[in-house]
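Sorry, any thoughts here?
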Amino acid sequence: MKHNRWAGLLLLLVWAGTATGQTAPVRKGGVNMNRLALIDKAVVLAMDRGYIPGAVVLVSHGGEKVFHKAFGYAQLVPEKVAMEPEMMFDLASVTKPVATATSIMILAERGLLRLTDRVSDYVPGFSRYVRADTSLAEEARLWHLLTHTSGLPAYADAKKAAALLGSPCTTAALADYIAKLPKRSAPGEAYTYSCLGYITLNRIIAVVTGQDVHAFARENIFEPLGMRYTTFTPDETLKLICVPTELQEDGLPLRGIVHDPLARLQGGISGNAGLFATASDLARYCQMMLNGGSLGETRILSPVTVSRMTQIVDTPAKAARGYGWVVKQGQSWVGGDLLPDGGYGHTGYTGTSLWIDPRTQTYIIILSNRVHPQDDGEVDSLRSTIANIVASAILE
């Protein structure tokens, strides 16, 4: 009789929860999986609206992968190819923090350079900003390149550079060309998101180590972390699992060839773009950052360095930037509205992004091919929507 009474009470509670729409959440790794499933609807809506052909989304919380799914198509033309979870994407500007900035921080830890060094120490002839009174501003430092406050323009005409330097051209030649460009502001005074600054950082890596960012990052970041499918210039075998980007004049999409024109001008290896990776590989990098610079027995950076790298650098420009990272203050078009301040991440022009939140021990990886078949897709709204969904799903 007592057993039947408790069974009846349990049924009543279940019925009440169902009637009010408050069924018990399905939990995994400290998240509400019912809420997390809303990611599916958000991605499908973006595809239905024609914003993206497909995507791979991976979410981890508390050291446990709680969501990893492929949606839609990796390719629409010349024929449709379904998206798969372990495909490689052209990361575009996600290259900046994952490969270039991380490499620079490793070199600083080893005492091979300082972030306060003058850029001209490594790239002679790096011009200074000329003020209205014709006086010269102070020299740009390496940390200005990392935070997009060096005074460099955002980009350069790749066709014009190719006409002057040849195609392909060396990073050394392109860095010298960039060094001579007129600067738009004094160092630290204005924020201009600049691919040119990160191309210059790749040159600095080569001057210090004799290796470009591809070789140095592979040896000191990707191979130690077991990121087997992360590389610049994928070989013919890896190209088979690369998600294609924009159609070219021959009617075929770029596959395993970097989309960014200045990176392509350098043969695919650049500090601003050119890295290809899978979501699973990026997850290993993100977990390393959440762990304070280590993954298992492998240490890439010290916890002190990770902390410094991901704090906002105070400048008159007031850019919410760390060394290589966008850092959250309030609303963010990649970190969303709800996740805590202090999280950090980056986006890529091709439709990629990652977001790392130390306070909730969560990271979000979104890989899409918004530039396929044409460069007319949109993924910013999806990034912030998914971030908000993930925030709502966190129970611990």
